[in-house]
Amino acid sequence: MTFNMKNKLTVLVAALLIMAIVVTGCSKTPALGDGEVAIVGSTRVSEEEYNRLLDYYLSIARAQYNLTDDMLNTDEGTGMTLLDTLKTNVLDIIVLTEVIATKAEENNITVDEAELKELYEQNHLKMMEEDEDYKKLIEENNLDETFIKDQMRKDLLGYKYKQFYLDKTEIADEAAKTFYDENSDIFHSEQVKAKHILLDDENTAKDIIKKLEAGEDFAELAKEHSTDPTAKENGGELGYFQKGEMVPEFEEAAFSLEIGKISEPVKSSFGYHIIIVEDKREENTEFEEAKDQIKTYLKELDYEKHMDEAIKKANVVKKEKL
């Protein structure tokens, strides 16, 4: 089994920074004791354990995304800072890990020492030799073998339980077909191939349009006048794109233009665009081609629902102010 720790950390931190894991408890008792941040069933989570894991993820976030203290402590517009979000999510990760451990035990799923030893040697020890950034992260946080193996054991147990659940989950063809029919925009899309010239003001855009109508070359004018840096390199070529990929004003104009026609100046938040459509096409993915992928997606949704329900039943109590 390939279980790359560095990749896992990168993906995990990215997830922490862009979304919150919803963890709720079904009871407010028993009460938290001094030095505790959460209770999950019969497990009490100490501030010491929480703070060490928080420092661990903070170090990863700083390294991967060049986060500064100012960035971490700036209000995101929700009354919370990025640091507040990270603090909350790290506690949620601990809660989720404990709930998964309970579900794994109920189904006799374990991690034996041989598996853990192999994972530790193939990932951690190898990366300590080959990846200086990873080595620096481990050393700066004083992360010893016990901590690393503990995290690996929890991650591996979570991986094994999820695979166990997904393997026994069946998705009928009918359910997949219903999803396919109800989400036709995912599987059937119109695409436009276009190029554009971006200008700062409307009058300049109108002057460029006159030059184009007089026969001057679009690519050359894009290289000479466009304020879009990419356009200067490739003559304004955008390639094929579908709805939802461009700003609304640009998209509306591009999809309504006939092939070969030059648009009037189109105003967006970037400036004034001159657009010419080179081609239009439709892309259709038939159900049989998409069926297996849809079933995989629906299994993932089912697992998320399963874990949400397990968390709600776990009698979770969390410290409100971290």
What attributes characterize this protein structure?
322 residues; alpha+beta; Triger factor/SurA peptide-binding fold; Chitinase A, domain 3; four-stranded antiparallel beta sheet; three-stranded antiparallel beta sheet; 7 strands; elongated; disordered N terminus
Shape: elongated
What proportion strand? 5-15%
Radius of gyration over C-alpha positions, nearest whole angstrom? 26 Å
**Roughly how many Å apart are the termini?**
37 Å
In short:
By secondary structure, the protein is α+β, with helices and mostly antiparallel strands. It has helices at residues 5-18, 47-65, 69-72, 82-106, 113-130, 132-140, 145-168, 173-182, 184-187, 202-213, 218-225, 229-234, 248-256, 287-312; strands at 36-40, 43-46, 188-199, 237-242, 266-268, 271-284, 316-318.
Explain what you see:
The chain is of the alpha+beta class and 322 residues long. It has two domains: 5-168 and 296-318, Triger factor/SurA peptide-binding fold; 182-284, Chitinase A, domain 3 (Roll), CATH 3.10.50.40. 58% of the residues lie in helices and 15% in strands. The protein is built from 14 helices and seven strands. A hairpin with a 2-residue loop joins β1 and β2. It is elongated and about 80 Å long. The chain starts with a helix and ends with a strand.
Topology overview:
Elements: H1 5-18, E1 36-40, E2 43-46, H2 47-65, H3 69-72, H4 82-106, H5 113-130, H6 132-140, H7 145-168, H8 173-182, H9 184-187, E3 188-199, H10 202-213, H11 218-225, H12 229-234, E4 237-242, H13 248-256, E5 266-268, E6 271-284, H14 287-312, E7 316-318
